[in-house]
Amino acid sequence: MGLPRFYIPPNQWQPSSLALTADEARHCAQVMRKEAGQEVVVFNGNGAWARTKITSSGKDRVELDLVEWGESSAPAVSITLFQSIPKGSNMDLIIEKSVELGVNAIVPVFSDRTVVRLDAKDAVKKQEKWQRLALEACKQCGQNWLPQVSVPVSFDAAWRQLPAHDLRLIAAIQEDSRSFKDTLAAVRVRKGEEKIQSVLMAIGPEGDFTPKEYAAARGAHGCLPVSLGSIILRVETAAIFCLSVLRHEVGG
């Protein structure tokens, strides 16, 4: 079993004077009962990590001595998950698996058929919860790049907030949608030697996106429709499937 992992925000990351504070210190000292002389790993969510030795342990601050440190390379391809929020706790699972699969950004969306509805205050609370889940997933799986989870917004608002991408895809059940293999092959032919550096993957809710939303995604927002096969997948399965294929096919 590896060393326990803790998070130090980038603005507090100083390899010469590393320390855990607030919730991370309490978790280390009181929950995991780590003491002076024991080793832990810390990371800053931007690729940097360090193996350290505890010099003092308290509920508000845990002082650390640097043993060794390094930098994890950023994924070669930045993947954004544009995810219509599913029912129940399925978004929690999607967040966790997205981290494991190396996603860079997660954009939760209220589409027309989304069952979950939140006011502005609750949307912020939900984002904070999902960001914490992403952090915990990073700790568990050894991921040193922390993806950013956006505050959930409407379908139209989400598109307005997004940057440009080299490739945008949308999971589709329409007859003219093509397989991942054929779609990516056509993209490679079109781009030639130009490398794909950023991809957006859009996944609908239970009941899928509406025809109007599909038209907007494919038209104004440049998404290519991809088929996930003949079997209808659950929302969380579709997200994991698409991200796995992208990670394998476009690398990173």
TrEMBL record:
The keyword Magnesium does not apply. The keyword Nucleotidyltransferase does not apply. GO terms for molecular function: rRNA (uridine-N3-)-methyltransferase activity. Signal peptide: none annotated. Transmembrane segments: none annotated. GO terms for biological process: rRNA base methylation. Its EC number is 2.1.1.193. Belongs to the RNA methyltransferase RsmE family. NCBIfam families: PRK11713.1-5, RsmE family RNA methyltransferase. Specifically methylates the N3 position of the uracil ring of uridine 1498 (m3U1498) in 16S rRNA. Acts on the fully assembled 30S ribosomal subunit. This is Ribosomal RNA small subunit methyltransferase E.
